[in-house]
Amino acid sequence: MSNKADNPHKNKQEEIMPQQQKSIYASLFSTVLIFTIYFWRMAEMHGQGAFEGENAFILIGQSVLWLMFGGIIINIIAHITVNIIYAIITKDANPSPVVDERDKLNELRALRVAYYVFGAGFVWSMVSLAFGQPPFMAFIILISSCAIASLSEGFVQLFLYRRGF
Amino acid sequence: MAASKSKSKVSNNIRRLRFDNDEMTQKQLAEKVGVTRQTIVAIENAKYAPSLELAFLIATAFSVPLQDVFSYEGK
Fold it and tell me: Do B35 and A8 make contact, defined as CB atoms within 8 angstroms?
C-alpha cells in the first residue's frame, strides 16, 4: 500500500484541531479562571468574617448565583477567544464545525466521570456536616467538588482524544 | 456504537478501500460521511466501532456492501 493512503496528508486542512477539542480547552480555561476568582473572593470574605453572621446563607446563595452567571459569561468569552486565536494561528476563517457520534460518546464518558466526582464530593460534604463541621464548610466542599468534576470532565475528554478513542 | 477498552472486535478494510478508491485521504472520507478525520483514524485503527448508520455511510462512500468494509472477529 502506498504511503499516501497509509498516512494522513500533512497539509494545513488536515492538521486542524477538531471543534470539540477547541471547546474542551476553552471550557478548561474558563473553569480554572472562574473558580480561581470565586475561591479567591470567598477566602477574602471568609477572612473578613462575612460567613459568621445571620446573613451567611444569603451571602453563600448570592455567591453561587454570581458563580453561575459569571461562569456562563466567561465560558462564552473563552470559546470566542479560543476560536479567534485558533483562526489567526491556522489562518482558517471557517473551521469545520463537525461534532460526530464519537465526540458525543466521549462527552458522555467524561460526563459520567464528572458525575462520580461530584457525587463523591456531595457525600463528603454530608459527612462533614454529620461530624459537626459548619454549613459553610459543606458548601465549600460542594462547590469544590463541582469545580473538580468540571475539570475532570475536560481532562477525561482530552485523554480519550489523545488516546485516539 | 460501543467501543471496547482497547481494540474493537470489529475489523475493517477502510485503509485498503481508500487506496483502491484513487488513494482517497482520511480527510476526504471524513467529509464524505460527515465525521471528523480523527473518527476515521479511530475506526481504521479499530479503536472505535462505528454506529450502524456510520458503517453504512462508509460502505456507501466506497460503493461496496457493508461486509466488504467491516467484519466481526468475535465468536
Answer: no
